Amino acid sequence: MRAHEAGVLHAEALAPGPAWLRPPEDVNALLPKLWPATAHRGEPGVLQVGGVSVTDLAATHGTPVYVIDEQDFRARARAFRDAFERAFADLCGGADVYYAGKAFICVEVARWIAAEGLRLDTCSGGEMLVGLRAGVDPARMGLHGNNKTDAELARALDAGLGRIVVDSAEEVSRIAEAAAARHVRAPVMVRVNVGVEAHTHEFLATAHEDQKFGLSLADGVAAGVVADILRRPELRLTGLHAHIGSQIFDTAAFDVTIRRLVALHAEVGREHGVVLPEMDLGGGFGVAYISSHHPLAPEEIAGRLAEAVRSECRAARVEVPRISIEPGRAIAGPSTFTLYRVGTVKPVRLDGGGVRTYVSVDGGMSDNVRTAMYDADYSCALVSRVSASPPVLARVVGKHCESGDIIVRDEFLPADVGRGDLLAVPVTGAYCRSLSSQYNHTPRPAVVSVRDGRAAVLVRRESEDDLLALDAG
Predict the structure, then answer these.
(1) Cα 362–Cα 4–Cα 291 angle in degrees, nearest 5
(2) Whole domain around residue 318: which residue ranges?
């Protein structure tokens, strides 16, 4: 970590730009792996996606705006569905893909997911409600959460959700009591903390011991909760679940996770005479936010995980349970970009003698907090025109009253970028809208889908009246 006496935000002044960032040969070129499949520059150099130009989108829907390529989103969903169905066909009759709604969910997206044959994973009563309003079959939905409310459990049981993932020992009795009151048998899975630390940001790693999720495998807590569930007639234990983190680019951590889950699965069979029918391996598959990211294709992920499951189940002498996974970011992320309009442009001379151009746009950390929260990297491009100017090192920042209000920390943009230009930041479909806020009383952007030359509002832009609607004063 490079230190600077004025604080971490000034550390880059000692060596502008990260090591992986190089000046582009063509500052107008789009790196395909960062953009939706239909994105390209039309005439006269304006970005088009789904057959719609960004200038038309800005004129009609304003900026900032999240733009989803429906065709791309659906294709990514199908890619996971088909890859895992093929890889696990001869092991357990296929695999179930649950879209992780926390990445981004709205009624229309839930309908896309259902139409493409995926299931839906939810983490709150609100996410459940979206799926139910969209008409998703409740039996194909699940509920996660480390602190589920009584109301959320009631909604899950009343709707008939296909699984409730148990995340603590005390939750077992609460679910059992709620199920008994409704004269139903609740299908549950146990989230196991397998002690695997994926190589990711500390706040994204979710299976090492010192964190809030899951039940520890190492100290026998998970096995104890399994035994407790099996003693309760109100509950039906369907299997084990693990999730080891997010933005993972290899499968080594999954190999260890599978080994430990299968060992517990086999132990349950030996100790209790019960063959659990399911096993969920979680999600967290990485996507490319910048040029140095190289994510695995769904086919490669599925093939590697299938081989690991085959090997471990053979070694443990158990039949392969029905496997499920939970991708969210890998489907939603690359299908979407955020469109901004440039305001102030400010060249700033750095301590080392270089210059960084600060490009301020009309959004910021209220619509993308991931840079500030997770130190996330993003790319961007000038999309309302092409430029003959040379590239300059730029930092894209928001309009909020925070020095940490940074959207793109380092990128090369044309030297003539100026007020009124449109910038697009790709790969913002996962967590940006979900984590958005009204900071500085800023209305949240609209979410607009594009396909076959048409644009449709999925989530309308908030208005100033919306900002005041809950204000009792």
Answers:
(1) 55
(2) 70-332
